């Protein structure tokens, strides 16, 4: 397999999952229902992207503003105590030494991502970072992945995506990018398998074998 670039999710993938996602989503939905006079029927279990897709373009702009207001403080708190998953730095070092381009595609804000990378000292490894500040359609919509591929200057068949949720797998497959699902993050092994990733791994070191450099 010829892989010229690897795209990583952030929370639960590169980092130990510390974002209080359930609490943030609950606050977001409450504020959104209040602003839009209770017209939101989505469950808290739905991904944010699906909730946004229910809305008109005008309401979507309002919702995105609320999303940033609610989520960024939670993301910044998680960034302050960001912790790398085991073998992440060694894996990034190895990939860069083989001239593989590296990117992050995350639904988090750019400000929080930059703080995460600074605190974990891995910012120098990444050629491209795409966040919700750059794309209006969040994962599991594939547009974020596609924008990242375009910024990397490679073809979709030359890229592989690594993430810890079924939404990462769905987003990658939507635009023709192969996917690696990694356990130990937000979603269970069984749930990850249900999304039919191209590969399922338990540790970062298994990426070496998949890419076969």
Distance between the termini: 9 Å
**Which radius of gyration do the C-alpha atoms yield?**
17 Å
Main beta sheet strand tally, sense and closure: 6 strands, parallel
Mean pLDDT: 92
**Quick one: how many beta strands?**
6
Poorly predicted sequence stretches spanning 5 or more consecutive residues: none
Beta-strand percentage range: 5-15%
Oligomer: single chain
Structural class: alpha/beta
Give the helix proportion (percent range).
40-55%
CATH superfamily of the largest domain: HAD superfamily/HAD-like
Shape: globular
| Helical stretch tally | 9
| CATH topology description of the largest domain | Rossmann fold
Q: What CATH architecture of the largest domain do you see?
A: 3-Layer(aba) Sandwich
Give helix and strand order, one letter per element, not per position. Answer: EHHHHEHEHEHEHEH
Count of discrete domains: 2
| Strand line-up across the major sheet | 3-2-1-4-5-6
Instruction: Provide the CATH top-level class of the largest domain.
Output: Alpha Beta
């Amino acid at each position: 397999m010829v892989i010229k670039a690897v795209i990583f999710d952030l929370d639960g993938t590169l980092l130990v999952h510390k974002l209080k996602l359930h609490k943030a989503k609950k606050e977001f939905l409450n504020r959104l229902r209040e602003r839009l006079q209770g017209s939101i029927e989505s469950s808290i279990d739905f991904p944010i992207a699906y909730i946004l897709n229910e809305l008109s373009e005008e309401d979507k702009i309002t919702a995105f503003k609320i999303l940033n207001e609610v989520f960024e403080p939670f993301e910044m708190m998680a960034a302050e105590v960001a912790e790398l998953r085991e073998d992440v730095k060694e894996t990034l070092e190895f990939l860069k030494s083989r001239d593989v381009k590296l990117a992050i595609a995350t639904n988090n804000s750019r400000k929080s991502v930059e703080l995460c990378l600074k605190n974990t000292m891995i910012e120098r490894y990444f050629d491209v970072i795409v966040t919700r500040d750059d794309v209006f359609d969040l994962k599991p919509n594939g547009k974020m992945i596609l924008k990242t591929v375009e910024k990397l200057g490679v073809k979709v068949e030359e890229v592989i995506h690594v993430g810890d949720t079924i939404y990462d797998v769905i987003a990658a497959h939507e635009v023709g990018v192969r996917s690696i699902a990694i356990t130990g993050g937000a979603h269970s092994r069984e749930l990850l398998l249900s999304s039919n990733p191209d590969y399922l791994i338990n540790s970062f070191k298994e990426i070496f074998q998949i890419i076969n450099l």
